[in-house]
Design a protein that fits this description.
There is one protein chain. The protein is an all-alpha fold and 71 residues long. It has one domain. The protein is 52% helix and 0% strand. It is built from five helices and no strands. It has helices at residues 6-19, 27-30, 37-40, 48-51, 54-64. The longest helix has 14 residues, at 6-19.
């Protein structure tokens, strides 16, 4: 993940996961290894249940970059 293009990162990540038929329940486990340091700094702010929810992690990271689903 590059800090200057979080939207493209998530689009690519989701496309790769879907094309490789990775079960969505595993996405949250695989995501941290692909994050930048700025993205990683968001994870400790999440609750334990949120850390297991890909969409919650994505929302938190986009918010930290001051982006949202509309961006």
């Amino acid at each position: 993940m590059q800090d200057n293009d979080a939207i493209s990162f998530f689009m690519a990540m989701e496309g790769i996961m879907e094309s490789n038929e990775v079960d969505r329940s595993l996405w949250a486990k695989l995501l941290p290894s692909q994050l930048s340091m700025k993205g990683m700094k968001t994870l400790p702010r999440l609750t334990f249940p949120e850390t297991k929810d890909y969409d919650a992690i994505k929302r938190a990271i986009l918010a930290s970059f001051k982006l949202d689903a509309n961006a």
